[in-house]
């Protein structure tokens, strides 16, 4: 564990202690106590527990009974001094796939990075490194999603169709390798779904290859990378094997 990572965890632990004692303080007689901040306990410190929390949140979201926890004023205020997220999530920029909502989480829970098609560039990789190294998240989730427009556009360009302008073309070009690596399927919807899965796995592999910080965290500090796909119609997040 690096010094910076140690420091990050230490600061979080101190913040947790401070808030716990604040919450436990007795209200003064005759005064209406203001709502105490929720103690920052129960934050998962390992990858399996972090994934479990995300999975449980997604199950609530799918059932239609989210808790909307960590979205209140007191919790928001309690985070002003520092953050202590338990997962870094790289998802697509698609407006239909907001990680906090589909995992039923709130402020300070997820270190979220989004780019169309989960494409990696220096800023995206650097942001993920920050989530792992400085925010100390034990889990990194690469979250693809059904009917991803960036993947669909890459399929079109591989097929020689479509015309893209500006930097969109370089972004889509980045996804083309996933399309080429996916076995052909006569069913266009099935092929798109397969390409989405390939892209999530490929991004995870490239992140490991490209980032020494993430690689070190995975190899020596118990950090795990999970790939998953979000289904637009059901709201369900499926973890990929
Ligand atoms: Zn997308």
Beta strand % = 5-15%
Helix count, per DSSP?
9
**Main sheet: which strands, in order across?**
2-1-3-4-5
Total domain count? 1
Ligand roster? zinc ion
| Record field, number of beta strands | 5
Q: Spell the H/E element sequence.
A: HHHEHEHEHHHHEE
Describe this structure in words.
It is a single chain. The chain has a single domain, classed as Carbonic anhydrase (Beta-carbonic Anhydrase, Chain A), CATH 3.40.1050.10. Helix content is 48%, strand content 11%. The protein contains nine helices and five strands. The chain has a five-stranded mixed beta sheet, sandwiched between helices.
List the helices and strands and how they pair.
Elements: H1 3-24, H2 47-63, H3 73-78, E1 87-91, H4 99-102, E2 110-114, H5 122-133, E3 139-145, H6 149-158, H7 168-180, H8 188-210, H9 212-220, E4 224-230, E5 237-239
Parallel strand pairs: 1-2, 1-3, 3-4
Antiparallel strand pairs: 4-5
Protein name: carbonic anhydrase
Signal peptide: 1-23
Enzyme class: lyase
In short:
By secondary structure, this protein is of the alpha/beta class. The chain is built from nine helices and five strands. A five-stranded mixed β-sheet has the order 2-1-3-4-5, sandwiched between helices.
Please supply descriptive tags for the structure shown above.
241 residues; alpha/beta; Beta-carbonic Anhydrase, Chain A; five-stranded mixed beta sheet; 9 helices; 48% helix; 11% strand; globular; binds zinc ion
């Amino acid at each position: 564990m690096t010094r910076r990572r140690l420091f990050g965890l230490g600061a979080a632990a101190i913040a947790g202690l401070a808030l716990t004692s604040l919450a436990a303080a007795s209200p003064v007689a005759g005064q209406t106590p203001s709502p105490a901040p929720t103690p920052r306990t129960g934050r998962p410190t390992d990858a399996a527990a972090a994934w479990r929390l995300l999975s449980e949140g997604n199950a609530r979201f799918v059932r239609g009974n989210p808790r909307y926890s960590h979205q209140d004023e007191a919790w928001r205020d309690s985070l002003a001094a520092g953050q202590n997220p338990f997962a870094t999530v790289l998802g697509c920029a698609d407006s239909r796939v907001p990680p906090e909502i589909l995992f039923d989480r709130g402020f300070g829970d997820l270190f979220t990075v989004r780019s169309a098609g989960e494409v990696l560039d220096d800023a995206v990789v650097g942001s993920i490194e920050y989530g792992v190294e400085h925010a100390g998240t034990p889990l990194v989730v690469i979250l693809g999603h059904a009917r991803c427009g960036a993947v669909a556009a890459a399929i079109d360009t591989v097929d020689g169709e479509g015309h893209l302008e500006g930097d969109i073309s370089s972004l889509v070009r980045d996804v083309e390798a996933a399309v080429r690596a996916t076995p052909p399927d006569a069913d266009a919807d099935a092929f798109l779904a397969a390409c989405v899965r390939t892209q999530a796995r490929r991004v995870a592999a490239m992140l490991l290859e490209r980032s020494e910080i993430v690689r070190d965290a995975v190899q020596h500090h118990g950090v795990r990378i999970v790939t998953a796909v979000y289904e637009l119609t059901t709201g369900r997040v499926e973890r990929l094997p």
